[in-house]
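Researcher: Re-running this chain for the archive, since the previous output was lost when a drive failed. Same request as before.
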Amino acid sequence: MQDQEPGDRERGAGPVAVTGAARIRVTENGPYEVEGAVPLAQQIIEPNEDGESWDWRPGTAFDVEPVTKLCRCGGSSNKPFCDGTHLTNGFDGTEVADRRPYLEQADTFPGPQLTLTDVGQLCAFARLCDARGQVWNLVEHGEPEAVALTEREASYCPSGRLVAWKPGPDGRFEPVEPELEPSIGVVEDPAMGVSGPLWVRGGIAVVAADGTPYEVRNRVTLCRCGASQNKPFCDGSHASISFVDGLPLGAE
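Model: Regenerated C-alpha cells:
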C-alpha cells in the first residue's frame, strides 16, 4: 500500500468532473432551477437474486426546457416538476449542508489494494453498498473479487458518499469514478416502496440560494421529499417518511 492517502492530494483534486453550461440553482424555499436542458429520467434501483440492491434501471424520460424547475418541497402535484405548492405549504428549504470539500469531510478506510472514503451525512439510502458483504468490509481484502466489488459498490453509490481510490502511475491515489453523462435521475426504490432523491450525474454545478457554489462532484443526490436534515442534499429521509411521488415506473 502506498503511503500517500487520498486526503494528501491537491485541493480540489477529489472526485470531480466539471462540465460546461449545465447548472442547478437552489432557490430560497423553492424549487431547483435546472439550466441547460439537462436530460431527466427515472433511475430505478433493481435487486439481485438475493434481494439486495444491485443495479440501476432507466425508466421514464421526461421532457425538459432550457430552464426546468424541479420540486424540492415534496408537495407538487406535477412531480418531478414544481407546480408552486411550496408557496402554500410552508416549505422551509433552508440549506444546512456542510460546504467544505468532500475530502475535508471524509472518513478513510484503507485496504491492501484500495482505500475507501466515506462522508456519512451524504447517504441517500440506496443500499447498493450493502450487497455481498458491505463495501466497508470488502475494502479490507485484497482478493480480485473483493477489489472489484469494492470499486463497483462505491461507484454505484448515487450520492458520491462513497469513493474508492487506487494508486495511479505516479503513486498518487486516483478516484475510481464511473463515466456519467450530465443528467439527472429521478430515483425510484420499489424494494422499499418509496421514491428517492434527484440523482445529479456527470459533474453538474449546484449553486446555493445565496449564490455560493457547492463543490462540483461526479455524483450528487438532492432532496426532493422536503424532509432532509442536510438540505439541499438527500439524507435518506424519503425512506423514513415513506415518500412516494406517484409516478408509474418505466417499462423494462
